[in-house]
Amino acid sequence: MAAPSETYVDPSIAANSGTGTIGDPYGDLQYALDTMTRDSTNGDRINIKSGTAEVLTGSLDFSTYGTPNRTSPLLLEGYDSTAGDGGIGGIDGNAGNFSIISSNPSFMGLKRLKLFNTGTAVVLSINRHMRVDECEITESSTGGVLGANDLTQVIRCYIHNIAGYGVQLMNDVTYCYFANGSTNKFTSAVVGSSTSVQTKVINCFFNLDSTSNAINVGFNIYNQNNSILSNAGTGYGILSYRIPQHIVNNLIEGFSGTGGVGISVSESDTFAHDNAIYDCATDISLAANCDVLPGQTNESLSASPFAKTGSLPTDFTSATFWSDLYAYFAPVDTGNVYSGYPTGSNQTKGAVGQPVGGGAGGGLLRVNMNGNVFG
Description:
Structural class: mainly beta
Helix content: under 10%
Largest sheet: 11 strands, parallel
Oligomer: single chain
Distance between the termini: 24 Å
Low-confidence stretches: 353-375
Number of strands: 32
Strand content: 35-45%
Shape: elongated
Number of helices: 2
Mean pLDDT: 85
């Protein structure tokens, strides 16, 4: 597959205008979808200019545009002045109580966009073969991203000020930052399937309070290398209620309110080991016959595992957003939690910290309990 065809939208100019070139962009995203000719050979990238958000009057309608497929997908991506330059475009749900995307086609991606203000509707309701990458998802009283099927990914997104769930039923939730807002607070930031969709929650960050759970998981979930922080929360860091589960190398702090639990596993035959928990009313509650092997124990800490350097970031457009986040959640040497991984004697320690390397543009590594690096 060759490079996709490029189409440009600038929401700051008059709607229903333009030809879609970089010099004469369309003035409206829905107008672009209704007017452009789909590249059925290589697919399309619709570039949405930063600065002025696209304000919708209803969910995006792809019926005129056509149906993306594996060889000719559709990508909506923000830009500042040239395609792919890292700018963040905006799509505003106008508090209209409809999802920005609902019942959309498969084989579609969203990248470098702020998706927000959907009122009582979920921000995004997506189908299979979908990827949401480097997006800010905010301002809904119902939910952030709902996956209707498998083969979906949410990667390196900032999901905050959302009530209900942050993401639900995704296959891959990686490198995301979930934060409660002053108005909306998660019931559970990540909700997995209770039946058949395998979910992986890896290398995510959580900043919660109140009754919010970080990860509420059902069927065949991999929870690994997550950093979970709550401010006197009464919810759960990780709540596991089905098998099989893999809960490994997570750092959890602050579910210290009445009923707060770091990790709760209600079913047997779950792999739950090398996690470190601090300052929870109950650190860990495991069902009988959970697989905690010799040398792979869970640990209750006597001090915070996080450096808490600086402050937690709130401006997703900042060039230092991810580095500020990593600095705050950086692991420190306490108990069997270690910094400086994966070199030297620290390789023999237990609970693993957050990724080595980093930056909004990628280059992140994930490390497993044996010191192996995988991407």
